[in-house]
Amino acid sequence: MRFKILLPWLLLAGVLGWLWMPHAPSVIPNMTPSLPTERAPVVTVPTPISGPVSYAGAVQVAAPAVVNIYTTQKIERQMHPLMRDPFFRRFFGEGQPDERMSSSLGSGVIVSPEGYVLTNNHVVVEADEIRVALKDGRETTATVVGTDPGTDLAVLKINLSALPVLPFRESAMQVGDVVLAIGNPFGVGQTVTQGIVSALGRQGLGINTFEDFIQTDAAINPGNSGGALIDVAGNLVGVNSAIYSRSGGNQGIGFAIPASLAKSVMQAIIKDGKVVRGWLGIEVRTLDEALAHQIGSPVKKGVAVAGVVRNGPAHKGGMEPGDILISINGKAVQDAQDAINRIAVLKPGSDMRVVVVRDRREVELKIQIGERPKETGSPAME
Fold first, then answer.
1. Among 281, 269, 357, 338, which residue's Cα sits nearest to residue 312?
2. Does a structural domain hold residue 35?
3. pLDDT tens-digit series, residues 257-286
4. What gap in Å lies between CA 286 and CA 278, rounded to an integer?
5. Whole-structure pTM value
6. Which of 7, 11, 78, 263 has the fewest CB within 10 Å, making it most exposed?
7. Is 200 part of any domain?
8. Which residues carry out catalysis?
9. Domain-ending residue, one of 272, 290, 311
């Protein structure tokens, strides 16, 4: 009986003792799902290409071979017809002289110890006298060896000893390469400007018949024509030729004739007095979608033959106005400039095979290449 009375008290004491006993803290499991850890992508920063702090070394190599060119030309004045009569001259005097002198300036590059100088054709065209001034103070008269209006290049010859020579760059340039332009802008004296190669192979600008320009943002101004575009080692990479400008001054778009083209033209002029090129005698226009739609052409790429010179190579070979030239010697024609350049490099007297689209059919023709006349008028005439 006593045991029964004590049992509830024992149970109560046990419960109270358990409640008062210290307990370890409860651990609540983290119910948040673990997310996969993403590592930040490793970005490899390219090591900066350290260029020269100064381009003075390149300028010291090239500048002595870049010359100033001064030309003079006699221009006849238009005299009133009455002044040709001695009776009127007796009363009104002889008047102004029948001719005046016009002068212009440009630049050039000495490229051989024999005294050959490369410049632009437009610098010396129709000049009666050409004088060349070197950086070392020497000055002399130059003679014209030959010109090539199609590329706007001319080769001069000066007779001086111990001439500085600018070497041609043999390797190809790349967009982004640093270049320096050296010339005589506005006649202020030899000037150096710096930029990069902005683009290569510029064509279809309507500046020259044969175009393959280096575009640069190095400042080129009037008077720079015919001057040197050089690399950071002082090698000739181009002959400065033209600028794109709305004001006539530099706007960061200049064009130079590549040294490789200038060298080949110079060698041909020195050897033969001229550049011999292939010729078909056709007037061409680039075929685009608008022109194709206008003339109802089934093809959208090629060259539209707008005209054919009578008795010229193309005429004799069966080409007709309205033909669409799509292939030359098995290779597709891209545009008018592409056709002009590819025909020009063919040897006169050789045969070429062309494919034209006529009346919605492809026609293959065999044409014997002729020699391109010295002057053909329109740049689009090939």
1. 281
2. no
3. 999 999 999 999 999 888 888 999 999 888
4. 20
5. 0.71
6. 78
7. yes
8. 122, 152, 225
9. 272
- Looking at 222, 237, 272, which one is the last position of a domain? 272
Q: Quickly tell me which residue has 């007779």 as its tokens.
A: 159
Q: Please report, for the domain that includes residue 363, its CATH number.
A: 2.30.42.10
Closest CA to 321 of 356, 270, 269: 356
Give the residue among 136, 151, 135, 134 at the shortest CA–CA distance from 208.
151
pLDDT tens digits, residue range 313-337?
A: 999 999 999 889 989 999 998 888 8
Show the tokens assigned to 27: 């651990």
Closest by alpha carbon to 292, among 263, 330, 262, 322?
322
201 closest CA partner among 266, 136, 263, 255? 255
Segment 208-252, tens digit of pLDDT: 878 788 999 898 888 888 999 999 999 999 999 877 655 555 566
